[in-house]
Specification:
single chain, alpha+beta, Immunoglobulin-like, four-stranded antiparallel beta sheet, four-stranded mixed beta sheet, 5 helices, membrane, transmembrane helix, ATPase activator activity
């Protein structure tokens, strides 16, 4: 019987809930008077206004330390990365010489990539520089020397791999060209005067007898010093990244050939085994013939 008395009816529970929502006797809403709610809202308004102001002040102070043209802090790998064009699928370039549709996509990719390097475009936008010397453009104290000029890298420098002499870049006759680029790093000086960094490519051990003869453009596969230092995309808007082309003259057909190309410079260390793109790039090349 005691338990039955302790139980509340639905009507009693409903009355208690209504009284909690609004008590006409004490004029309380959700258990608080208007003045209590006002004090709570005032506190949170002041609290969050203070937090928002602190955040804005912090962002303002941080932005004052930033440079629009150069990173304030540059946390990068000791050895910059490398990449190839065309990339293929997962850095695999595989095609059949007799099947145009299997290699035409590589030709189109190279045409698109090299379009900004056309000699006429380079002559309009960039400067003829002195080879084998850094093209340094210092600021004059607080006066910024911007926008900075860039040196011409004419497509014709790539000769047989320019797409000008051979519009198929050698893919049609089993002597393909691969372009290699060195990642842009602001302020990098890769080498000393008259000691330009250069690219060397070789087959990995098990494929050393399949790679055949290679030809480099520009000669010796060099990244000339006149293209350095790089000052950043905003300061050097027309910068043309230097390229090296490698032409495979007599690679073994119908066989996988694993190739590794690396950068050689007197002040760039060897890449880490943990990063396969640091100072080198590896790719597979397979040229099939029926």
């Amino acid at each position: 019987m005691a338990k039955d008395k302790d139980r509340k009816t639905c009507g009693e529970l409903w009355d208690e809930w209504k009284q909690f929502m609004w008590n006409p006797r004490t004029h309380e809403l959700l258990g608080r008077t208007a003045s209590s709610w006002g004090l709570i809202l005032l506190f949170y308004l002041a609290f969050y206004t203070f937090l928002a102001g602190l955040f804005v002040l912090t962002m303002y102070v941080m932005l004052q330390t930033l440079d629009d043209y150069k990173p304030t802090h540059q946390d990068r790998l000791a050895t910059p990365g490398m990449m190839i064009r065309p990339e293929g699928d997962s850095l695999e370039i595989i095609y059949n010489v007799e099947k145009t549709e299997s290699w035409d996509m590589y030709v189109q990719a190279l045409d698109k990539f090299l379009a900004p390097y056309n000699d006429t475009h380079q002559a309009e936008t960039n400067k003829e520089c002195t080879a084998d010397h850094y093209f340094i453009q210092e600021d004059s104290g607080e006066v910024r020397n911007n926008p900075k000029r860039s040196c011409q890298f004419n497509r014709t420098i790539l000769e047989d791999c320019s797409g000008m002499k051979d519009r198929y870049y050698g893919y049609h006759d089993g002597k393909p060209c691969i372009l290699i680029k060195f990642n842009r790093v602001i302020g990098l000086l890769p080498g000393k005067d008259k000691q330009s960094p250069y690219v060397s490519c070789a087959a990995k051990n098990e494929d050393s007898d399949k790679i055949g003869e290679l030809m480099y453009f520009p000669p010796n596969g060099t990244f000339n010093l006149m293209y350095y230092p790089y000052y950043g995309k905003k300061a050097q808007v027309n910068y043309s990244q230097p390229l090296v082309a490698v032409k495979f003259l007599n690679i073994t057909p119908n066989a996988d050939v694993n190739v590794e190309c690396k950068i050689n410079a007197d002040n760039i260390g060897p890449g880490s085994e943990r990063d396969k793109f640091a100072g080198r790039v590896s790719f597979k090349l397979r040229i099939n013939r029926n």
